[in-house]
Design goal:
By secondary structure, the chain is an alpha+beta fold. It has one domain. 43% of the residues lie in helices and 21% in strands. The longest helix has 38 residues. The mean pLDDT is 93.
C-alpha cells in the first residue's frame, strides 16, 4: 500500500507530515486530503480559505488542494464569483509566501554580513538555520 504524505501551506509557514498514511490509491489520498482540509477549516473558513494542502506520493507532489475550492460556505456563490474568490485566495497566499521568502533572504543576508565581519549573528529561527546550506 502506498504511503502518502501531506504539506500544509498557510502563506506564512509550511507544515510537513513526517509520517504519512497508507492508502490504497491516489483517489483515496485525495479524498483523505479533502477530509483533512475541511476539518482544519471548520469554523474558521474566512481565515483558512487561503490555505492549501499538498499531497505527496514517494516525494512527488500529486495533488494540490486549495481550501477555497472545497469551502462549503462558498457554495451559494455563482460559479464565476466563486472562481474569483478562489483566485483571490490563491494570490493572497502567494503574496504572503513571497513576503516570507523575502524576509528569510533578508535575515540570511544580515547573518552572512555579520559572519563575514566576525560579529554575532542569528544562527536559527523557529528551529531553521538562518544561513541556508550551512552545515
Amino acid at each position: 500500500m502506498p504511503i502518502y504524505t501531506f504539506e500544509l501551506h498557510d502563506g506564512d509557514h509550511r507544515v510537513e507530515d513526517q509520517t504519512g498514511v497508507g492508502l490504497p490509491d491516489r483517489a483515496r489520498a485525495l479524498a483523505y486530503a479533502h477530509d483533512v482540509a475541511r476539518e482544519l477549516m471548520r469554523c474558521r473558513e474566512p481565515q483558512a480559505r487561503i490555505w492549501r494542502l499538498d499531497v505527496y506520493e514517494e516525494g512527488e507532489r500529486i495533488y494540490e488542494v486549495p481550501f477555497a475550492s472545497i469551502d462549503r460556505t462558498l457554495d451559494h456563490l455563482r460559479p464565476e464569483l466563486r472562481a474569483t474568490v478562489e483566485q483571490s485566495c490563491e494570490r493572497h497566499r502567494s503574496v504572503k509566501e513571497a513576503i516570507g521568502a523575502a524576509r528569510v533572504t533578508a535575515r540570511e543576508s544580515r547573518a552572512l554580513v555579520a559572519l563575514s565581519h566576525g560579529k554575532p549573528y542569528l544562527a536559527a529561527q523557529s528551529g531553521k538555520r538562518t544561513i541556508r546550506g550551512a552545515g
